[in-house]
Amino acid sequence: MKKLVVGLVLITLPVTPIFATTACISAEYVGGNMGLGSQIIKYAQFLKTTESFACIFYVTILGLFFYGGVGQIKKWIITWKI
């Protein structure tokens, strides 16, 4: 039973970094004056689309990096096969 609970928790764990990154950037986009969200707004106001997309690309790479890192940690923790 304990392995099942740990397995279910660790199955949902890789999705959380993507949601956390999205929530952080969205909060900065709405109410921040520093960070990537505010940079996206600043670049969009001055029609600098390449810089705006560079920030969005950076956030995407950051989310994928966190997703892969959590996936590797999950592989190290879960040694059994379901």
Q: List how many beta strands DSSP finds.
A: 0
Q: Catalogue the unreliable spans.
A: none
Strand content: under 5%
Intertermini distance:
13 Å
Category from helices, strands and their pairing? mainly alpha
Instruction: Tell me the helix content.
Output: over 70%
The best one-word shape is: elongated
For the largest beta-sheet, the strand count, sense and barrel status come to:
none
Return Rg in Å.
17 Å
The helix-strand sequence is HHHH
Domains, number:
1
Tally of DSSP helical segments: 4
Mean pLDDT: 82
What does it look like?
The protein is mainly alpha-helical and 82 residues long. The protein has one domain (18-76). 80% of the residues lie in helices and 0% in strands. It is built from four helices and no strands. The protein is elongated. The model has no long low-confidence stretch (mean pLDDT 82).
In summary, what is this structure?
By secondary structure, this protein is an all-alpha fold.
Task: Write the SSE topology.
Blueprint: H1 2-12, H2 16-31, H3 36-45, H4 49-77
Helix pairs in contact: 2-3, 2-4, 3-4
Features of this protein?
82 residues, mainly alpha, 0% strand, 4 helices
